[in-house]
What we know:
The structure holds two protein chains of two kinds.
Chain A: H1 2-22, E1 38-47, E2 58-62, H2 76-84, H3 88-91, E3 96-101, E4 111-119, E5 125-131, E6 138-146, E7 155-158, E8 162-164, E9 198-199, E10 226-232
Antiparallel strand pairs in A: 1-4, 1-10, 2-3, 2-5, 5-6, 6-8, 7-10, 8-9
Chain B: H1 2-19, E1 24-32, E2 38-39, E3 43-47, H2 62-70, H3 74-82, E4 86-89, E5 101-108, E6 114-122, E7 127-135, E8 141-151, E9 198-199, E10 228-234
Helix pairs in contact in B: 2-3
Amino acid sequence: MTIRLLRMSVATALLIMLAACSDDNDDSVTEVPEEPEMRTFEVSVFNLSANQPLSPIAVIASDGGMLWHTGEAASDGLEALAEGGDNSVLIGADSTLGSTSGDAPLGAGESEMLTLSLEAGSETSISVASMLVNTNDAFSGITGVDLTTWAVGETKTYLPAVYDAGTEENTEMAGTIPGPADGGEGVSEGREALDAVTMHSGVVTADDGLPDSVLDSSHRFANPVMKIIISRVE
Amino acid sequence: MKAPSLQNTLLVTGLFTASFAQAAELEITVENLTRGIAFTPILIAAHDMESHLFVTGEMASTELQAMAEGGDISGLEMVATSVAADMATNPAGGLLMPAMSTTTMLSTEQMNTQLSLVAMLLPTNDGFVGLDSWTIPETPGTYSVYLNAYDAGTEANDEVRGSGTPGEAGMPVPPPLENVIGMNGTGVAASITNDKVHIHPGNIGDAEIDGGSSDIQNTVHRWLNPVAKVTVVVSE
């Protein structure tokens, strides 16, 4: 329903713009540079967790690269996203060709649609990333999905797993988790010993016997926690 | 006059065959992949593109709630009947226990191109195993799908004995589970944190049969996804 409503509002906005154009009676001839052909993608994200708000969703088009690799150390941009929910460093990377971001965290059970327009012709891959904010450094998303061959109208659904950025110990202790379960610190100094992106093994929580954890049973999660639907609409 | 009209008929038939899925004969096997979770009576439905038994990210219907909280599939059967779905109901004849499989046949009408499946997970408050609108392949062969565990979002996961009636707290405990479920737990979660259909966060349980927070056993009644394997044989 949310998606349909958003689509309707886009259509309404276009109608308003067209109506505004029709009032234009300027007779002067101006050289209009040829508009580049655009490829537009709608990215819908659903939060399927029980109680893990997702930090503002980052949708990033890059020149072919992956934003993370399992078994390798996280970039500083991924660390900022996974520890503090801050996607600005990741978006600001030199490899970014286009991006969009949610305005606010996406709560459990919520969904939103983001739109990304790119000039046709560029070799691009898309990544979607977000932190599970009631964790130390868990994130979920997809990276390096090739967009170059997508036809208009093509739609794909992704159900990505949860990853551990491997940059902060999973202590679950007060002061270390930025989400509403704690309100603690985001990005911490330094890296944990392993310093590699891996699959996440889940949170333990106080309800399961980790005495110093600020988390409870509602913060536990199983894969997947995110549903991503990408459609090429132009 | 006759020849053109025959040609037209052939052309129309050809188009019809090309653009619509065939009616299908399916042999469907559902395997419970868990070590300690039982499936209540299973509902399998083949239906059209517009219909769903459940949709992640949306509120559960009252019929889905009745299935997820109490294992009652009668409401969903009525909904499926109303959209002319083809169904296989309760193929296991009751609970499908851990590591067990059940097989059923399903003949599908041409319009019913999507396969869905639901069954409550026991012991849980409102957990269920689900498949939402898997497109039935047109090419004969054997296909496998792995299914996740979902939370209907309609009841707090307190993990204590209670009711299978929609809207009433606690878990139903049918006779086959009577001796593996604990007693007198004080309750794990007191509230719902996501009221839409979502991925189940899993059982917690505890190590105490009598007392503790949960009536579920933490070494027995947990799972990781996937929780079921569905094998579909599409006949010629």
